[in-house]
Design a protein that fits this description.
Length: 340
């Protein structure tokens, strides 16, 4: 791909300082960039690289001040990290501009595919499936009967979407994601065995959801497991049946949410966090890694830590006491023995 500095400035609604006719071929890290690259500075501690980089174009914050000459053309924007993300997306979309149906693959005659859809080799598209325009289904992916994929969505290799699930527009499902597998529903019997409870619902992902590799979202027993718009899940995340996750919430790797729990919008959840079932988490909640959430969180915008979790600053105070317990125990023992 080739694009001029002037075209990038228009795309990002930024202000150029330097040569508008520079031809940019690739994005690059500021330390490794060459005379055809665009890079960026977001954190002031990396500002020193601006004086030595070979990059042709640097995306920088509007207010960043340089006390020495910079050889690169500068593209000033309100928020350089976000702007550079748009540049990466532009180059990524161009590099992955796949279209058409590869063979061997199977597309049921009743399926409806929009314009410019890509279906990779060994993919399976079931009965009554609908796939929106510009969406991509990579090799080895299965889309079950009656499922719907919106516009401009990407299902990478090995994704499995079970029957009658709904994937919105501009969603990204990474390799190995499973959408709509049965919820963990088993009824205990008098003889100690467990009888499977049929899982008749589905999974609904709204628009702009991204699911990391090998994550699983179980279908509802009845109704829908619901992932609201803008949610981002990391790799190896487990979402159980009838869970609801509010819009723009992010969950890091190896976290698990038990059945029927409802997580609010704009929450930030660290890695290896576990939630018990049938609880509610307030909007804007922040949860530290490896915490265990055993009860509902009702107050919005607070941070939590620990297992079981409690309010973040209280947990830090408690830990400062806990880590000193060996010394305190020795001091008490010495007092009892009269050594002090």
């Amino acid at each position: 791909m080739k694009i001029t500095a002037k075209e990038l400035a228009a795309l990002l609604e930024g202000r150029l300082e330097g040569n508008p006719d520079l031809l940019i071929r690739q994005p690059a890290r500021i330390e490794e960039a060459d005379e055809h690259s665009v890079s960026f500075v977001a954190n002031p501690k990396y500002q020193e690289y601006a004086y030595t980089t070979k990059a042709a174009l640097l995306v920088v914050p509007e207010a960043m001040h340089f006390d020495r000459p910079v050889s690169a053309t500068l593209l000033r924007v309100p928020e350089s990290y976000s702007a550079f993300g748009k540049i990466l997306q532009l180059f990524h979309v161009t590099a992955e501009d796949k279209r058409g149906i590869e063979q061997p693959s199977y597309v049921d005659p009743s399926a409806v595919l929009g314009e410019n859809v890509y279906v990779g080799a060994f993919a399976y598209i079931g009965k009554q499936v609908r796939i929106g325009k510009n969406s991509k289904v990579y090799p080895g992916t299965v889309v079950g009967d009656g499922s719907v994929i919106g516009d401009n969505s990407i299902l990478f290799s090995g994704v499995k979407v079970y029957h009658h699930c709904v994937i919105g527009s501009e969603c990204i499902l990474h390799a190995g994601v499973v959408i709509g597998s049965d919820g963990f529903g088993f009824a205990p019997q008098r003889d100690g065995s467990f009888e499977k409870v049929p899982q008749l619902g589905n999974v609904v992902l709204e628009d702009r959801v991204e699911i990391g590799a090998n994550s699983t979202i179980d279908r509802a027993t009845m109704g829908s497991t619901l992932i609201r718009k803008g949610v981002k899940l990391d790799n190896l995340v487990q979402i159980a049946h009838n869970v609801e996750i509010g819009e723009n919430t992010v969950i890091a790797a190896q976290s698990g949410v038990s059945g029927s729990t409802k997580i609010g919008k704009n929450c930030m959840i660290g890695g290896q966090v576990g939630f018990v079932g049938h609880i509610t988490i307030a909007d804007g909640t922040r949860i530290n890694a490896q915490s265990g959430i055993s009860k509902s969180i009702k107050e919005k915008g607070k941070a939590w830590n620990g297992a079981p979790a409690f309010e973040y600053t209280d947990s830090l105070r408690s830990y400062s006491v806990y880590k000193n317990l060996p010394a305190l125990e020795k001091r008490v023992s010495d007092l009892e023995k009269g050594n002090i």
